Amino acid sequence: MDRRIKFRHLEAFTHIARAKSLKRAAEQLHLTQPAISKTLKDLEVIIGKQLMDRGRAGVRLTPEGEVFLTFAEQSMQALQTGLSSVASIGAGGNPTLTVGALPSVASQLLPWAVQDFRQKSPGTVVQLLEGPHEYMTDRLRAGALDLAVGRLGRPESMVGLSFTQLYSEEVVIVVAPNHPLAGATQLEQLDGFPIVYPPQAAAIRPLVAGKLIASGLPLFNNRIESASGEFGRAMALGNAQAIWFISHGVVANDLESGRLVAIDIDMSATTGAIGVMARSEEVPSAIAHLFRQSLLDYVQRP
């Protein structure tokens, strides 16, 4: 951006555009009309385009002015949001940050990120909600969440949202260590046992389905569809001897401790992006920015 453009240029331009009058805009900003007219002219010289047509009936935006107004207003809004958010951090009153989390990130990424965030913003109350992908994205679009952390979903589920990738992970097939199929190497061997399978709302479902299709296999008839980590864990470890298709992050601690084992079947085709989601048309608050930075710090840690 041209460093000659100052806040006063954007302020004058947006006020003139709203008021459609140099005189009224000057009164709102407590300036003289020649002063605000010069500020507008200076901005046009810097940009190299005429932004407004002046006439007896007032001022009218040129096509270039229409384009510039959108971004000028966004810049003004972003600055105001930043100033308000920074002020709220030091002003007490315990601001709240509400974060949605898919189960795959709730056990590893979020505890570390929350602790780091609390050092950055000790007065902020963090509210965590866990659920499947579509539930979280719907809540995020509705404004009930400030951010959501989880897998990148299908394009139709990401409408109106931005996505910043943190890392990638794949789906694993896990069983109890003493399961008869603990040493299986082919998907065809899994039929005959209960299978805990991702439901329609889960971001990993199309990835798992794609793996089955590529292997020439139909959808398992003996599947039990659930996004609950506790249910899947209980089914895999209990008398049901279930086989569980699940994101690696959900069972990372179980695999590390040996409580569960991953069947040695290549699931690299199910690898997907894990990241932080926000409303694409909204400037994030200061505390949302700090939390996003804590997530990025987790990925970049030694």
TrEMBL record:
Under the heading Pfam families, the entry gives:
HTH_1, LysR_substrate
Residues of the HTH lysR-type domain: 5-62
Write the signal peptide boundaries.
none
Keywords, in A-Z order: DNA-binding, Transcription, Transcription regulation
Q: Which PANTHER family match?
A: HTH-TYPE TRANSCRIPTIONAL REGULATOR YBHD, NITROGEN ASSIMILATION TRANSCRIPTIONAL ACTIVATOR-RELATED
* Family listed: Belongs to the LysR transcriptional regulatory family.
Q: Quote the protein name from its UniProt record.
A: LysR family pca operon transcriptional activator
Query: What is the source species?
Result: Yoonia maritima
